[in-house]
Amino acid sequence: MLYLLDTANVEQIRKAYESYPIDGVTTNPTIISKEKTEFATLIKEIRGIIGKDGMLHIQTTKIDTAGIIKEAIALRDFVNGNFYIKIPTIEPGIKAMQELKKMGFNITATAIFTQQQALVAAKAGADFVAPYVNRLDNISSDGVGVVADICNLIKIFNFDTKVLAASFKNVEQIHRISLSGTHAVTIDPSLLKTLLYHPLTDMAIIDFSKDWRKRYEKKYILELLENVPPIVD
After folding, report:
1. What residues are labeled active site?
2. Cα 144 to Cα 61: distance, rounded to the nearest angstrom
3. Sign of CA pseudo-dihedral 115, 121, 123, 126
4. Does residue 196 carry a pLDDT above 70?
5. pLDDT digits (tens, 9 = 90+) for 101-159
């Protein structure tokens, strides 16, 4: 499983990279605009944190084929490193994907809500397809089921495309799409923290600490290890 952060907030990215095994960052025009800062500076800061090998997915703001291609070229030349151009899965986008793939671009097909959108994008050369789970659930559809179908179709037709599931509200959605064989998820940093949370884990740690202090309250770890011979490989 690949874990990507769905944010452009520099501090959130820096904190997450300090503690978690993060594979990259995804953005979109809305996420970028929330930071209220100059685009070029923001992207340089993000690249500086994640390094040249970290995946950085940036979405085109154009929705016509020529505009998408032009913007993709400009972004690749500027962003450098492990860069993916995110392209909406619409007709001009599918056309642009095919052209950009010939030019050697890494492509993420985004705004996917159906199995066939994902299949067409995969055939057009997308390296990742990004179905939106919670947005489907919000309209009484089955977001997890759609992702499972997409994973199965990609396997049936032997595409190299990976599924990058997006739009989550809770850990249960992430857990269920993981069981479906999803290759990657992009999630908000606050939700990333909840992947590790369980009250029984917290209780166990409290009990360990309490029992240790009860038995060794007048001793320190260094004192306990004084007479222990060193470990020899």
Report:
1. 86
2. 28
3. negative
4. yes
5. 999 999 999 999 999 999 999 999 999 999 999 999 999 899 999 999 999 999 999 99
Instruction: Name the CATH code of domain 2-194 (choices 3.30.9.10, 3.20.20.70, 3.10.580.10, 3.90.780.10).
Output: 3.20.20.70
- Taking the chain, what is the end-to-end CA distance rounded to the nearest angstrom? 34
The two tokens of residue 148 are 């499972």
Q: How many residues does the chain have?
A: 233
Name residue 128's beta-bridge partners: 108, 162
223-to-23, 211, 213, 232 alpha-carbon distances in Å: 41, 18, 14, 20
In whole angstroms, give the CA distance from residue 182 to residue 66.
Answer: 32
Domain spans, the chain: 2-194
Pairwise CA distance, residues 68 & 61, whole Å: 8
Task: Answer for the pair 45, 8: CB distance below 8 angstroms, yes or no.
Answer: no
CB neighbours of 191 closer than 8 A, spacing ≥ 6?
A: 168, 170, 171, 174
State the residue for tokens 């209220």.
36
Contact indicator for 46, 25 with CB cutoff of 8 Å: yes
Q: Which percentage of the chain shows pLDDT scores above 70?
A: 93
Beta bridge partners of 4: 24, 186
